[in-house]
Amino acid sequence: MEKQFFTGVGHVEDMIFLDKTSDGSFTSGKEGVKAIFTPYDRKVEFIAFDDKTLCNVKSAMGYPAIYNVPVSSYEGPAKAILMDLDGTSVHSESFWMWIIEQTIAKLKKEPKFQLECEDEPHVSGHSVSEHLQYCIDKYCPDKKITDARKLYFETTEYEMKEILEGRGKPGAFSPAPGLKEFLTEVKGNGIKIGLVTSGLYNKAIPEIISAFHTLNMGDPFDFYDAIITAGQSLQKGQAGTIGELAPKPHPWLYSETARVGLGIEEKDKASVLGFEDSSAGVISIRLSGFQAIGLHGGNIHASGLDSLCLKKYDNLCDALPLILGR
Q1: Is the full-model pTM beyond 0.90?
Q2: 164-181: per-residue pLDDT in tens?
Q3: H/E element, 139
Q4: What pLDDT does 2 receive?
Q5: 10 Å Cβ neighbour count for 5?
Q6: Rounded to an integer, what distance in angstroms lies between the CA atom of residue 179 and that of residue 91?
Q7: Rg of the chain's alpha carbons, rounded to an integer?
């Protein structure tokens, strides 16, 4: 299909064009709607008008939201960068998909249960509850999300303790190639760095601590200018936070890291880049009003979202000339 240009989104090529949104709220060619299109993973829907584009972020938990897609640009050198954790800074997606698999195996009482290859886009890049709900709908519709969450956090707590004590699943967390050199160069040039993850605190923080320990980089809380996670999990005896229903591809994690964590004002948005390997993350960055840099190896290409990335790279260090304005 010939490339088409839409406000806020830019040139679109690898998308599925629809007659209506999934909820029937918008129809292509009616009431000013120019086109409706969705990535291959169908997690969001774009509704394009002549002067704007809306993004309908769907929800497996029943709480969708519609956002305006801001027009974004980039002018180097950067004043700040926003870094995703899983798959971008640390390679751990296979581990967390394994945790989901273990959870469903326990829920079904089938120790040999395995996810299918086609499940991957639905069990990575979104919230824990959405991952689990997808699996329940497909594999055990008679089970409850509350029971799945309980098993998930019990499994996670055990495995994280094993890893931090030097045991656990081998190769669970490994720093992305060139991470130390990349972060050191960026920080050495006075550029602020924010770490952003849809992962809950109890799973995300051991990841980055483990990676920094491997790289002999000290305490990540001292290194990063801001770290924003999806918050605390809701478990008996402790308060949870709002991260389960507002993760990527919603804009809030990146927006909070930039505006609150790094103090980025509206006038400086064109001096900020977000780094992601997932389709949900790319959309989150764009809905926050920043340009996105894609990392090969995730599901950006498979989801049809290459066109939403300013650039795509194999290695973080390949992006340094763009960041530094050289």
Answers
A1: no
A2: 777 777 778 889 999 999
A3: helix 128-139
A4: 62
A5: 9
A6: 11
A7: 20
In our burial notation (b when 16+ CB lie closer than 10 A, e otherwise), range 156-194 reads beebbeebeeeebeeebbebbebbbebbebbeeeebbbb
End-to-end CA distance of the chain: 35
In the predicted model, residues of the chain with pLDDT beneath 70 are 1-2, 125
CA 175 to chain centre: 17
What's the CA gap between 91 and 217, in Å, rounded?
17
> 56 has which bridge partners?
45, 66
CA distances from 24 to 28, 57, 138, 173 (A): 10, 14, 24, 42
Q: Hey, what amino acid is at 174?
A: S
Answer yes or no: are the C-beta atoms of 164 and 111 closer than 8 Å: no
Separation of alpha carbons 325 and 77, rounded Å: 4
C-alpha 290/C-alpha 78 separation (Å) is 12
Question: How many Å apart are CA 205 and CA 113, to the nearest integer?
Answer: 29
Q: Are 247 and 217 in contact (CB under 8 A)?
A: no
pLDDT for res 74: 98
- Give the neighbor-by-neighbor strand order of the sheet with 65-68: 16-18, 35-38, 44-48, 53-57, 65-68
Long-range contacts, stretch 59-64, CB < 8 angstroms, 24+ apart: 59/130, 59/245, 60/126, 60/129, 60/130, 60/133, 60/134, 60/137, 61/127, 61/129, 61/130, 61/133, 61/244, 61/245, 63/245, 64/23
